[in-house]
Design goal:
Keywords: ATP-binding, Helicase, Hydrolase, Nucleotide-binding. By secondary structure, this protein is of the alpha/beta class. The protein contains 25 helices and 30 strands. The protein is globular.
Length: 825
């Protein structure tokens, strides 16, 4: 029997959300008047004072496991390069910036010299101004050209919200320059009647990689005047382009460079990120170009107080009688409520869409008990909302109309939310890069800020709140991406051939794996070679071969059955687990039941309801080894890396009580199996190692299963992944290895680089896994160590002590040197 643990690509990332009753540590009587939010320019309470108020109630102080104080830092000014036009400098000064920081001036100098540059400085350090100064200067120069359109620039953001926010900022900054600067957003929300104007007249087009892939590049003849004048390509929040998504974007950028070259231009790339490790290497890997790094942050920084917060144990017991901590969702709702009552402007980051909705709903209920005017000052913000809903929420947050927002990572990036006082993070977001991005949303106007990380009942979260050095004394992770992944590369070669026939000289641009793929694409009938090169042979659009977000397939629309109203969408890859027949779906605080999932038409029909339960999908998974690329001995056992095929099928779902998580029943589902060819790391143990570890046959399955769960939970410390990006299977006797085996695999076709990183850091990774299990205070295993919220086998069987002994014995045979760690990308 195989015990499985699935990634988001094949499993619902929501899981059961049991919300325990919230009892505020500070009683909130109905006549309690909330503190008025400070007006602009008015003194705000210090972050330390805000934290003291949160910790003042009974039992609250014990929940803070660590407090980190990051002191304020003075800034270092410079002067703009003399090639920055006076009109641009005047506009910047009118916006309140008298002199640039030293890193802004340095980045502008590189850009004007024609060098691609990555600006890797902290949040709110003025990265936008660093690239806008040379961009606006070049656009102004071009506007004075006697013939032609003049210079243009392209801005790429990972989200629509960030592009829209940046467009507003550019319009405000460039207002004194008149109509010589013409910024415009071009994305899926742009009205059809505006698109032709953008193509013909906009000088600064703000879009996203998805629109570049599906809209701009396939229609490049219609964009010819823009592309002939393209001087700069700005890539904002470049650290987000990792894994499969980053690999796709790397190939989209190569396609852009190829098309630009055909129009006679070679734009300079300007990249920005607040949380990039080895930024020049990462930027070069993404763009395929040598890139200069500017990372010496000269901006001032206000005080940041960063608290690690562990919710208390409850009287409830979970699976197998394990102790259960109060959920991070409930604890975060509690903190958001208290901060709102204090008048502290706060964003609470929640990992799932359903979690963001729940935090908002719970906080509103609590606030209504204090002041009936307060619930309208709190809202939820997540992906899947309609464009007009997102825009309204962004305006309300920006204006201060909203005091509290429960948001998913859709709000993590560089949206200008100046004026926030605090950030609450419900669960470790998967990487240190994301953690610091989220923490950096507060204090963006230079004032002090409070950040609180609320731990989930999870091995990694529990480990981190008790090992603060793993957060505060370690650099952010290196970006992991693999543009040579054949599942990524192949559709982009087809898309490139559809844009312009591919020639021999083009192949080098797309990477060393291109030569091997071309014959395969020919034999599959996708490309045909002629004298002028390789041509796309099909009638359908080649750009539709792939979803660059890595989900694959068209999104499933969630439609209200009675009215036909579109509520939102869910990725096709998550549909089997998120919107199966009978699933509970939340949208803007309302609860719906899925009446029917129509896979053929990609529609889930829902009806509003109020069930007293949540739903969790159950599934089965098996793994077969296709090819072993690397194998190293660990004592008598083996550590391996290679290609595998994963077969998964959602077979049923559980209904759980909202308060206790108690299982009310299980319902069978009839959904088709899915297969995934991907990359994996796996380890085996020999009979002698089992004997030395005192793991008998009755304990073996539970020991392997427990080690698998904990190792998946700990991997995000060593690779830029989320636990939902990866999956696992443990087998007491695997038919391909003929030994007890644990697999951890990438949850994306062809792999995403996470399993490879795990293989090359295995000794450190599995040592931390063993420690996380061993130090947990529970007796037989709990969510803080070996139980998983997405286990397809309902966390059965698990053997905590057997896992510790097994990992101890395995690590005795680990080589002293990690096996050939490649340079970080």
């Amino acid at each position: 029997m195989a015990f499985n643990h699935l990634p988001a690509a094949m499993h619902d990332a929501l899981g059961p959300l049991s919300v325990t009753p919230v009892t505020h540590s500070v009683p909130m009587a109905k006549n309690l008047r909330p503190r008025r939010p400070p007006e602009s320019g008015e003194s705000r309470p210090s972050p330390g004072t805000v934290l003291d108020r949160l910790a003042a109630g009974a039992g609250r102080a014990a929940r803070i496991t660590h407090t980190e104080h990051l002191p304020p830092r003075p800034g270092r000014h410079a002067v703009w390069p003399d090639r920055i036009r006076p009109e641009v400098i005047n506009a910047i000064q009118r916006a309140g910036v008298e002199h640039p920081w030293a890193h802004q001036a340095a980045a502008a100098e590189h850009a004007l010299d024609g060098e691609s540059v990555v600006i890797a400085t902290g949040t709110a350090s003025g990265k936008s101004l660093a690239y806008l100064a040379p961009v606006l200067t070049t656009l102004l120069d071009g506007s004075e050209a006697p013939n032609g359109r003049g210079a243009t620039a392209l801005y790429l953001a990972p989200t629509k919200a960030l592009a829209a926010d940046q467009c507003r900022a550019v319009k405000e900054l460039a207002a004194p320059l008149g109509n010589r600067i013409r910024p415009a957003v071009y994305d899926g929300d742009t009205p059809v009647e505006e698109r032709e104007w953008v193509r013909q007249y906009a000088s600064y087009v703000l879009t996203n990689p998805d629109m570049l892939h599906r809209g701009i590049l396939p229609s490049h003849p219609r964009w010819s005047s823009f592309l002939r004048a393209l001087r700069y390509v700005v890539i904002d929040e470049c650290h987000t382009y990792r894994g499969v998504f980053g690999s796709h974007v790397a190939q989209v950028l190569r396609r852009l460079r190829r098309i630009c070259a055909r129009y006679g231009t070679h734009p300079v790339f300007l990249l920005a990120s607040a949380t990039a490790a080895q930024p020049a290497l990462a930027a070069g890997r993404l763009t395929g170009l040598p890139t200069v790094e500017v990372s010496d942050d000269a901006s001032p920084r206000g005080e940041l107080v960063f608290a690690l917060w562990e919710p208390p144990l409850t009287e409830l017991h979970g699976e197998k009688g394990a102790p259960v901590r109060r959920t991070a969702t409930a604890e975060t709702a509690d903190l958001l409520t208290d901060l709102t009552v204090q008048g502290v402007r706060t964003v609470a980051f929640v990992r799932s869409r359903r979690g963001a909705e729940l935090v908002s709903v719970i906080a509103k209920e609590r606030l209504a008990e204090v002041d009936r005017s307060l619930p309208r000052r709190v809202a939820a913000y997540r992906g899947g909302y309609l464009p007009e809903e997102r825009r309204a929420l962004e305006r309300a947050l920006h204006s201060g109309e909203l005091l509290g927002l429960a948001a998913t990572t859709a709000l993590e990036l560089g949206l200008d939310v100046s004026g926030l006082d605090a950030v609450v993070i419900a669960g470790y977001p998967g990487t240190r890069a994301s953690l610091w991005q989220q923490a950096g949303r507060a204090g963006r106007a230079g004032q002090g800020a409070l950040a609180v990380l609320v731990a989930r009942d999870d091995p990694l979260d529990t480990y981190l709140v008790h090992h603060p050095d793993a957060i505060f004394r370690q650099p952010v992770e290196s970006t992991v991406l693999d543009p040579d992944n054949p599942y990524v590369l192949a559709p982009h070669l087809c898309a490139a051939a559809a844009e312009l026939p591919l020639t021999e000289t083009d192949l080098e641009l797309f990477g060393p794996a291109t030569g091997e793929l071309m014959p395969q694409l020919e034999s599959a009938g996708l490309l045909r070679r002629r004298a002028t090169g390789w041509h796309w042979t099909r009638r359908e659009r080649a750009a539709d071969l792939t979803d660059i977000r890595g989900g694959g397939g068209r999104p499933v629309q969630i439609v209200e059955a009675g009215t036909g109203r579109l509520l939102g969408t869910v990725d096709e890859s998550a549909a089997h687990t998120a919107v199966h027949d009978g699933a509970v779906h939340l949208h803007q605080g309302r609860t719906y039941l899925v009446r029917r999932l129509d896979l053929a038409d990609s529609v889930a029909l829902v009806e509003e309801a109020a069930p007293p339960y949540s739903t969790t999908a159950r599934d089965t998974t098996s793994v077969s080894v296709l090819e072993t690329d690397i194998e190293v001995p660990w004592g008598d056992g083996r550590l391996c890396y290679g290609s595998v095929e994963v077969t998964n099928q959602v077979v049923s779902f559980l209904r759980r009580k909202l308060i206790t998580g108690e299982v009310l029943g299980e319902t069978r589902l009839d959904l088709p199996p899915r297969t995934l060819r991907t990359r994996a790391v796996w380890w085996t143990v020999a009979e002698g190692q089992l004997d030395a570890a005192r793991v008998n046959p009755e304990q073996l399955g539970g020991a392997l299963h427990a080690a698998e769960h904990a190792s998946i939970g700990m991997l995000p410390l060593f690779a830029t992944c989320d636990r939902w990006d990866i999956g696992g299977v443990s087998v007491p006797l695997h038919p391909d290895t003929m030994l007890p085996t644990v697999f951890v695999y990438d949850g994306h076709p062809g792999g995403a680089g996470f399993a490879e990183r795990a293989f090359h850091t295995a000794r450190e990774w599995l040592t931390a896994t063993r420690e996380a299990i061993a130090v947990c205070e529970c007796e037989a295993g709990c969510p803080s160590c070996i139980q998983s919220p997405k286990c397809g086998n309902g966390n059965e069987p698990l053997h905590k002590r057997g896992a510790v002994r097994l990992l101890t014995e395995l690590l005795k045979g680990a080589p002293e040197e990690e096996p050939g760690l490649p340079p970080a990308d």
